[in-house]
Amino acid sequence: MRGADSRVVLGLHRSRHERRLLTGALDLGVTALDTSSNYLGFRSHQILARTAGDLLPKFTLSTKVGYFQGTEGVEHSLIPVRLRAAVEQVARDLGREPDLVFLHNPEHSLREGGPRDREVFAQACTALDDAAAKGACAAWGVASWNPSLLPGLIDTTAPRPSVLMVRAGLLVGARTLDAVDDLTRAWDLSGGEVRGMSPFGGSTSAPVWARIDPRVFLRDRNQLSCVQAAFIAAYHLPRAHSVAVSTDDLAHLGELVDALAGEVEERTVQEYRSLLRDRSGSQTA
């Protein structure tokens, strides 16, 4: 069994939630687990408790609330009473309080970007902060797939999240990266309070990965594979302490853990971000 390393987070999006995956992750030193109330058809928490309840105390466990089962299918809501109830339900379903609960994709319910959205966002943050204060979870954060709207909605009088979770990696555009920079400044978050997700844009077998060589970002280009290089680069786009990756393949997870030995050339990252900004500017001009 390898030593624990909190920089790799096992995500359960699209996962089958098998016990052998969790035991294998622990053997690899992966002790951070991320799920959501709506994963696996809104059954993720119950299935985890049933199939691996004895293993859960060995993980730092994060989950998300914001999506709900409605009469006409899945719906998103930032209504404070629903969010507080959802956090409390998480603890009941898991059989333990989660270490971290994210407000899941708040932008889904914040379409206008005006004063009303700013108030709604502040109230949602306050609801999660209240839930943490009452012991329903140890801490709370914001997980956003498209954070571009959020910097303009921050109320400095509202509680601030402990962690920000956003898309990371070479497929993330300049607008998202700049929004993350704005959010980390506004909330006074350090790199250790930012978590990346979806470092491969959904799949390592996507055609884009056959057309580029992410090893150009490494100080030693022969040290890692292209997949490993893309993964370690995700920790710098944006700068994040940890990255969540969803997989049922323990060999792939082990490959990513080994990638942590790689060193990224920071100057290359900054040059790449400048190129992204230039490209983004030319497209909007």
**Count, helices:** 9
Largest sheet: 8 strands, parallel, barrel
The CATH first-level class comes to Alpha Beta
DSSP E strands, number: 10
Q: Give start-end ranges of low-pLDDT stretches.
A: none
Helix proportion of residues, in percent?
25-40%
What's the alpha carbon Rg, rounded to whole Å? 19 Å
| The CATH homologous superfamily | NADP-dependent oxidoreductase domain
Output the helix-strand order: EHEHHEEEHEHEEHEHEHH
Indicate the structural class.
alpha/beta
Strand order of the largest sheet: 1-2-3-6-7-8-9-10
3D shape: globular
Tell me the distance between the termini.
Answer: 53 Å
Average pLDDT, to the nearest integer? Answer: 94
CATH topology: TIM Barrel
Number of domains: 1
Strand content: 15-25%
Q: Any descriptors?
A:
eight-stranded parallel β-barrel, alpha/beta, TIM Barrel, 285 residues, 10 strands
Would you kindly provide a written description of the structure presented here, covering whatever features stand out?
- With 285 residues, the chain is α/β, with parallel strands linked by helices.
- It has a single domain (8-284), classed as TIM Barrel (Alpha-Beta Barrel).
- Helices cover 37% and strands 16% of the residues.
- The protein contains nine helices and ten strands.
- The model has no long low-confidence stretch (mean pLDDT 94).
